[in-house]
């Protein structure tokens, strides 16, 4: 029925976002964050700061594996 | 007391009219059906929008002009300025929007509400809308029983519009029947006495019906059936506009300062506009007639002219009051002040907010953050530290080692006096709020309840730990002293990291800070890391010290994990990223 299609469309518009899409989005965000952190690591002048960023980078990589 | 009698008197009057006022029966039924329809439309939009409306309102109120536009569009679509006002007050209470944004939305909603007048005057009194009403009601009922919430919402909207149309049709029929036996138009009063009488009538009618839309529908149907004269209809409209703000003020009496501020802004806006429009009523009426002729409304089409007048009236009000918005906002902020900011009574758990899921969640989150701040005060004191000494310090280890063990915090007393009632209020409010929510929102509230429980349990776990920290700080054994300092350092570092992660905007930054901290707190798991084994083997600590240390390390580890779980829920907005933090 046409009305069903219309209502399905409305439902998708307002209530959708399947799990796969969500996972993809998180993956993208994590990859972007990893790139940003790598860049920060390159630019970091102090050894302590570099150490912190390395730790952060390894955590982000771990999180990426969890997705 | 007065309210009770007023309501009984109202019921008796209605009963009297139904039994003896044959002519009014149909009109009253029409108003009742119309109001039922409005309730369905409101409920339907709440279900159907699935948070879209809330998100739109939140995102589009950063400038006054945007806020006015948003209020206009939202109210014109939903046909309910009261629903928009409730959402706005809720958002304001949860600090999701500013008072200036909220006032802008209310101004816009006033213009948006004039859409009702246009619908009734262009369709309601000209075509037989009852023929549309029946299919709408039938389809609405069927859809209302669907499983999907969006279908149910759409069904309720259809059902509501169907009832609104049916109500208008009843009112129209009622006035036509009334006209055959009783001519109300002979009570027409001209001049400023007429203005006073009819404006007052408009106010009273709207306050009684709690709906300016219903008042507008009556005025337009009465005008279309020649029961009232045009100029008196204009005066009734002015009265209805003032009346609707009195309804809002009565509703805000039990609300917090924000609710009172918005209701007062609404009243000031409408009363000031009504005053100006009353003074210039005749020139404005002529201007409406002039403008009507220019846009193709027939001179005899009084119903449409009334709708045009209603729109001009509200646009004029917006133009007049908007330049003074900043002053109005400052005045309202000083007029109503929150009195319980420093005590631990709930600050955000407002009754009005509970009906708007998005705002209710934010209110619960903010209240839980207050609970966290208080619990952290107690936890810091129980490791003999003041928060300002170690939070954001570059060298926490030194700060802890050099601090004196002198703070005597009574955790039980602190819990009874400061935490318990706030914790109960959060749980009670959160449970009630879940009734109005979809599954996703219910889950979010469940997580927030969990965060509250973690915070309270973390604090309670500090009781036993605190005693031993105090006891072993006096010990001559430097090894056990160092071990307890190590526990204090880990707890202090946890509090400090959570304090720092609040400043992150990106959820992934918050999560990575939490994950890093999780790694470092593993040092507290004394059995796993064999730290104590070495001390026992080398005779550095006796068996009593060792068992105390094993137990207390476990308590401390538990405290840090509970605080981290609470922080994950409170400061990571995206649920999918929060879940990512849970190890499988």
Mean pLDDT of chain A: 79
End-to-end gap of chain B: 60 Å
Put simply, the count of helices of chain A is 3
Residues in β-strands, percent of chain A: under 5%
SSE order of chain B: HHHHHHHHHHHHHHHHHHHHHHHHHH
Q: Considering DSSP H and I runs of 4 or more, what fraction of the residues of chain A is helical?
A: over 70%
Radius of gyration of chain A: 20 Å
Give Rg of chain B in angstroms: 31 Å
**Beta-sheet strand percentage of chain B?**
under 5%
Question: How many β-strand stretches of chain B?
Answer: 0
Mind summarizing the main beta sheet of chain B? Answer: none
List low-pLDDT spans of chain A.
Answer: none
What would you call the shape of chain A? elongated
Note the total helix count of chain B.
26
Backbone shape of chain B: elongated
Number of domains of chain B: 2
What are the main properties of this structure?
heterodimer, A: 67 residues, mainly alpha, 3 helices, 0% strand, B: 584 residues, Methane Monooxygenase Hydroxylase, Chain G, domain 1, 2 domains, 26 helices
């Amino acid at each position: 029925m046409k009305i069903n299609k219309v209502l399905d469309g409305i439902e998708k518009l307002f209530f959708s976002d399947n799990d796969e899409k969500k996972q993809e989005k998180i993956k993208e965000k994590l990859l972007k964050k990893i790139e940003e952190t790598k860049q920060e690591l390159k630019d970091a002048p102090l050894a302590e700061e570099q150490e912190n960023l390395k730790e952060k980078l390894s955590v982000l990589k771990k999180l990426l594996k969890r997705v | 007391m007065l309210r009770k009698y007023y309501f009984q008197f109202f019921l008796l009057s209605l009963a009297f009219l139904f039994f003896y006022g044959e002519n009014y029966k149909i009109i009253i039924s029409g108003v009742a059906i119309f109001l039922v329809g409005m309730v369905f439309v409101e409920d339907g939009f709440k279900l159907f929008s699935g948070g879209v409306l809330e998100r739109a309102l939140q995102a589009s109120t950063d400038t006054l002009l945007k806020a006015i536009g948003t209020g206009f569009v939202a109210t014109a679509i939903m046909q309910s300025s009261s629903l928009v006002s409730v959402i706005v007050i809720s958002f304001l209470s949860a600090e999701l929007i500013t008072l200036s944004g909220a006032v802008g939305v209310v101004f816009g909603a006033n213009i948006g509400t004039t859409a009702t007048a246009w619908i009734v005057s262009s369709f309601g009194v000209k075509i037989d809308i009852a023929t549309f009403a029946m299919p709408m009601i039938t389809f609405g009922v069927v859809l209302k029983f669907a499983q999907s919430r969006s279908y149910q919402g759409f069904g309720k909207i259809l059902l509501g519009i169907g009832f609104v149309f049916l109500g208008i049709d009843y009112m129209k029929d009622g006035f036509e029947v009334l006209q055959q036996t009783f001519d109300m138009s002979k009570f027409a009063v001209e001049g400023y006495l007429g203005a006073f009488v009819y404006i007052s009538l408009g106010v009273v009618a709207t306050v009684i019906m709690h709906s300016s839309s219903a008042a507008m529908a009556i005025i337009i149907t009465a005008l279309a059936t020649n029961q009232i004269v045009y100029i008196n209809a204009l005066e009734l409209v002015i009265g209805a506009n003032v009346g609707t703000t009195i309804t809002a003020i009565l509703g805000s009496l039990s609300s917090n300062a924000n609710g009172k501020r918005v209701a007062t802004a609404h009243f000031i806006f409408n009363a000031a506009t009504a005053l100006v429009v009353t003074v210039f009523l005749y020139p404005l009426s002529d201007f409406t007639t002039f403008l009507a002729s220019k846009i193709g409304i027939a001179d005899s089409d009084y119903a449409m002219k009334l709708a045009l007048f209603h729109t001009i009236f509200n646009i004029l009000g917006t133009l007049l009051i908007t330049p003074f918005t900043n002053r109005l906002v400052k005045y309202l902020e000083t007029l109503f002040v929150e009195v319980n900011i420093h005590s631990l009574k709930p600050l955000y758990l407002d009754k009005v907010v509970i009906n708007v899921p998005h705002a209710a969640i934010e209110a619960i989150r903010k209240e839980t953050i207050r609970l966290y701040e208080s619990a952290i005060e107690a936890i810091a004191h129980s490791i003999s530290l003041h928060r300002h000494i170690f939070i954001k310090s570059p060298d926490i280890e030194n700060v802890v080692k050099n601090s004196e063990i002198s703070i005597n915090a009574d955790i039980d007393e602190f819990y009874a006096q400061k935490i318990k009632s706030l914790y109960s209020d959060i749980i009670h409010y959160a449970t009630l709020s879940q009734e109005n929510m979809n599954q996703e929102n219910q889950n979010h509230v469940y997580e927030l309840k969990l965060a509250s429980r973690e915070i309270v349990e973390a604090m309670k776990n500090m009781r036993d730990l605190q005693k031993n920290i105090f006891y072993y700080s006096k010990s001559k054994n430097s090894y056990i002293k160092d071990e307890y300092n190590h526990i204090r350092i880990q707890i202090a570092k946890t509090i400090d990291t959570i304090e720092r992660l609040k400043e992150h905007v990106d959820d992934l930054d918050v999560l990575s800070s939490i994950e890093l901290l999780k790694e470092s707190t593993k040092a507290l798991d004394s059995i796993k890391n064999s730290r104590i084994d070495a001390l026992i083997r080398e005779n550095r600590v006796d068996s009593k010290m060792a068992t105390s240390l094993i137990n207390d390390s476990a308590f401390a580890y538990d405290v840090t994990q509970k605080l981290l779980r609470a922080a994950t829920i409170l400061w990571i907005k995206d649920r999918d990223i929060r879940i990512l933090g849970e190890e499988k």
